[in-house]
């Protein structure tokens, strides 16, 4: 049975290069959070301000960017770990697993972007705040990983705190709510699939993201042709230069976010990456306040405190169990 690793475990590992791993993990976590804030804010800005409501096409551009960037990194020889150092080295069984990950990944980002087309960013972040708990349950159901009651208990302040931190007055669009809830479930499943490939099969993050991005791009492009056939034409005839700028920035953030999150999962666990991801809710609240006329309330501040307490509980779950003699 696979043992999940937390951020503290990485720092405390008694092996050569542990300090380098800790620094790399810290940088990756910061990059992931910054990329997550950028993606959510830029996508919402594209849909609301630039009036370009084509979430499937936007998702396909994200995957195309990931494929191009990671192809360049592979050809430049940046891969130095893992049994498969090139995408050509992947056996058929692994390719099938990557294809399954691509399907889940495409569905999760497509549903998420479609949800942002109907609901406010604060509502989407409220629902996404439950992703760590969903991922934990999926890890136990699909992989048989025992989490322990302390980690489950830590999810209460983590999820509720993140919900409170972004909670505000907003109208709930039924279709948008369905899309966002579906995206949350698929995010949890996606992270479990990623952890199997990155930890159990020891794939390199760059190799995995490139191998996943190529089929994901074609799937999303096919969906674009079927459901958003005017997207490319309207993009080519668009005279607003802001749209091209925001699309470029959104694609850049998506590449950084995916690479960083893959690396965080490789060093920690599928649950940890979403516990860290909930910190992006704080940044999204601040960005929403500036760009989308949101506001920070006392409930938001209390929620942020709860979330940080829950994260400390999660990271120190083994120590808490020892002190409680459980």
Task: Write out key terms for the chains shown.
single chain, 326 residues, mainly alpha, globular
Structural class: mainly alpha
Strand content: under 5%
Q: What's the story with the biggest beta sheet? A: none
Distance between the termini: 21 Å
The oligomeric status of these chains comes to single chain
Number of strands: 0
Any idea what the shape is?
globular
Mean pLDDT: 75
Q: Report the total helices.
A: 15
Helix content: over 70%
Q: Radius of gyration in whole Å, from Cα?
A: 19 Å
Account of the 3D structure:
The protein is an all-alpha fold and 326 residues long. The protein has one domain. It is 77% helix and 0% strand. It is globular, with a radius of gyration of 19 Å.
Q: What's this entry about, in short?
A:
The protein has about 325 residues and is mainly alpha-helical.
Task: Write the SSE topology.
Elements: H1 7-12, H2 18-48, H3 55-75, H4 92-116, H5 121-128, H6 131-143, H7 149-166, H8 174-200, H9 205-227, H10 231-236, H11 241-267, H12 270-277, H13 280-291, H14 298-315, H15 317-324
Helix pairs in contact: 2-11, 2-13, 3-4, 3-9, 3-11, 4-8, 4-9, 5-7, 5-13, 6-7, 6-8, 6-12, 7-14, 8-11
């Amino acid at each position: 049975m696979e043992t999940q690793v937390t951020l503290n475990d990485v720092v405390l590992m008694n092996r050569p290069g542990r300090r380098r791993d800790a620094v790399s993990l810290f940088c990756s976590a910061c990059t992931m959070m910054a990329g997550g804030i950028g993606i959510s804010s830029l996508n919402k800005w594209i849909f609301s301000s630039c009036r370009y409501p084509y979430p499937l096409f936007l998702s396909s551009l994200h995957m195309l960017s990931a494929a191009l960037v990671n192809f360049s990194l592979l050809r430049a020889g940046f891969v130095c770990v893992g049994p498969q150092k090139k995408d050509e080295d992947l056996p058929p069984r692994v390719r099938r697993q990557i294809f399954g990950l691509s399907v889940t990944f495409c569905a999760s980002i497509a549903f998420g972007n479609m949800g942002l087309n109907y609901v406010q960013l604060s509502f989407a972040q409220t629902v996404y705040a439950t992703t760590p708990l969903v991922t934990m349950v999926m890890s136990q159901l699909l992989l048989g990983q025992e989490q322990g009651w302390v980690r489950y208990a830590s999810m209460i302040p983590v999820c509720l705190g993140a919900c409170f931190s972004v909670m505000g007055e907003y109208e709930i669009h039924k279709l948008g709510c369905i899309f966002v809830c579906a995206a949350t479930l698929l995010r949890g499943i996606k992270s479990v699939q990623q952890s199997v490939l990155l930890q159990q099969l020891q794939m390199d993050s760059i190799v995995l993201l490139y191998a996943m991005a190529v089929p994901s791009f074609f799937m999303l492009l096919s969906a674009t042709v079927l459901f958003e056939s005017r997207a490319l034409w309207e993009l080519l005839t668009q005279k607003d230069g802001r749209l091209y700028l925001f699309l470029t920035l959104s694609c850049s953030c998506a590449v950084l976010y995916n690479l960083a999150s893959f690396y965080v999962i490789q060093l920690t666990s599928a649950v940890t990456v979403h516990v860290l991801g909930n910190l992006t809710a704080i940044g999204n609240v601040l960005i929403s306040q500036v760009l989308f006329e949101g506001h920070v309330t006392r409930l938001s501040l209390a929620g942020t405190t709860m979330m940080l307490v829950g994260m400390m509980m999660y990271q120190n779950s083994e120590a808490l169990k020892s002190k409680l003699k459980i």
